[in-house]
Amino acid sequence: MSIFERNQCKTLFNNGIVMITKEEAQKELAFRELARRKLDFFVQQVDPFYWHEGKGYVFKPFHKIITNALEDVIAWRKKKIMISVPPQHGKSTISTQRFPLFAHLKDPTQYIVSASYSWDLAKTHLSKARQIVEWPQFKALWMPLNFTTNGAFEYTLAEWWWYYAVWVGGSLTGRPIDIGIIDDVHKDRLEYESDTIRNNTWDWYTSVFLSRLHKDSAQIGVMTRWWEDDLFWRILELEWDEWEIINIPVLDWTNTIFPERFPYDFIQKKRAVMWERDFQALYMWDPINEWWWDFKKEYFRYEEMGNIEQIIKRMKIVSFLDPAISQKQEWDFSAIVTVWHDLQSNLRYVLEVKQLKASPNEIIDEVFDTARYWKNKWQSYKMGIEVVQYQKMLALAIRDEMRKRDFHFTMEEVTPRGEKEARIRSILQPLYSNSSIIHIRGKNINELEVELLKFPNWKHDDIIDALSSACSIMQSSNLSSTYRTTVRNANNLI
After folding, report:
1. Are 481 and 382 in contact (CB under 8 A)?
2. What is the CA radius of gyration of the chain?
3. From CA 94, how far away is CA 455, in angstroms rounded?
4. CB 366 within 8 A of CB 356
5. Of 261, 283, 391, 485, which sits most exposed with the smallest number of CB within 10 A?
């Protein structure tokens, strides 16, 4: 029976005193003493997550590998370690939330800093550490400790323990860092694939983070790898022989490292629906450089429009407009791509491609022609439009035309996130490599395929940019509710 279970479940109270047997008391005291000395026992003592055997949350051998490495940091046997473990396996829970407390208990004078990709994640790590101090499992080890907060990102325990949380890009001032923890510097693959974001992260690390370290400072990297040229790879290129790398892939021969929570069959099913590149990066610490094969001709699958007409009623249809609007008298190509998402098969069908060099008024006419045609096929229809700079004015003009023409359809304004090339890769590569996109013959599909095969070195990418945006809208979390609303209020939409 776990410490948590003994403390919370199997106890009798008599006038506020816990009544247990002598043998249980001896085991309890022995475990607490080990928890004061060893990080692995400390984690198990203060965190019931690792003892909730009903859900399979148990302290596994790979958890001990992590805690042993972190103990080496505390003992100053190691100054630089990188920890790579698959998502949801407890690496941040141990390294960023529990470890700082244990390190402070060993040496209260240390100044510890953790860096994450966002404000919210930084605050989460800090608040979790603060909460532990109030837990009865922690108070059973040490006398109650008071903490004070110095702003949203810093706390002080017992008047001299310092733990500061910062987001990548934030400032670091004050005293030098004794232990610096970098935990997931990017949110997702879209950020990792952005040269600009990766370079900005590297600049922050070299100019801000490193500037706060002294000669005896320790660095701990806690990562989920998405990209071969990430922050940690750049560090290793310069200091390969200085870092201890703790790399724990999810698969251990014919089983997983955490079968109670992630059984082998579950991981294999996840792998089957993921892009192999993502699986290798996230779960095997082996990001693959595949820039030279973005899109291959053998990825293309085809179908005739007549063969899908019978099932058209179960589809969600999204058109996306990538308008070329500027102050120039000569306009670049605009594109309108229409995609059907078959909810039963999870396939995407490219129904229609329009590429046009036109004035704003001509673009608006094409938008309404497209919307009328596909909305007549099925009421569950949405038009997306990219809005940056002058494109915002076009969106306003389209909404005004809805009233003038007395024809309304759902329109979603989209502000592109990240660099265009990275955005196209992150959305379309997995779909094409997994054969999840089918081209309907005709409808200017040839123009789409030219852009795919010549990407990213072709002079035009407006069609594939519109396609990636249409697929992104379909993948958004609020899509289902959006379409239910569309069907219910089809006659009252603007």
Report:
1. no
2. 28
3. 42
4. yes
5. 485
Burial class (CB in 10 A: 0-12, 13-18, 19+), 165: buried
DSSP 173: -
Domain with CATH 3.40.50.300 in the chain: 3-284
Token pair in block for residue 281: 């990066």
Longest dimension (CA), the chain: 89
Task: For domain 3-284, give the fold.
Answer: Rossmann fold (3.40.50)
How is residue 294 written in tokens?
């973005």
Whole-number Å distance between alpha carbons of 102 and 292? 46
Question: What span, in angstroms and rounded, lies between the C-alpha atoms of 454 and 296?
Answer: 10
Burial bucket for residue 217 (CB in 10 Å: 0-12, 13-18, 19+)? middle
Tens of pLDDT along 440-483?
Answer: 987 778 889 888 987 876 778 899 999 999 998 887 633 333 33
User: 239, 247, 96, 263: which is closest to 181 by C-alpha?
Assistant: 96
pLDDT (average), residues 74-91: 89
12-14 and 17-19 strand pairing: antiparallel
CA dihedral 482, 88, 244, 249 (to 10 degrees): -90
E strand segments, 135-263:
147-149, 154-157, 161-167, 177-183, 213-223, 244-247, 251-252, 255-256
What three-state secondary structure class fits 17? strand
Domain with CATH 3.30.420.240 in the chain: 297-488
pLDDT tier at 56 (50, 70, 90 boundaries)? Answer: very low
pLDDT tens track for 246-284:
888 898 767 899 888 888 889 888 887 777 777 877 788
Tell how far CA 449 is from the center of its chain: 30
Beta strand 213-223 with 177-183: parallel, antiparallel or unpaired? parallel
**Centroid of chain to Cα 95:** 19
pLDDT one-digit tens code per residue, 439-451? 998 777 888 988 8
* Domain at 297-488: CATH code: 3.30.420.240
- Here the tokens at position 408 are 């309304």
In angstroms, how far is CA 255 from the centroid of its own chain?
25
Which DSSP category does 21 fall into?
A: -
Q: Retrieve residue 104's tokens.
A: 């402070």
Calculate the CA 319 to chain-centre distance. 26
DSSP labels, 125-161:
HHHHHHHHHHSHHHHTTS----EEESSTTEEEETTTE
337-387 pLDDT, tens digit each? 999 888 778 889 999 999 988 888 999 999 999 999 988 877 678 999 998
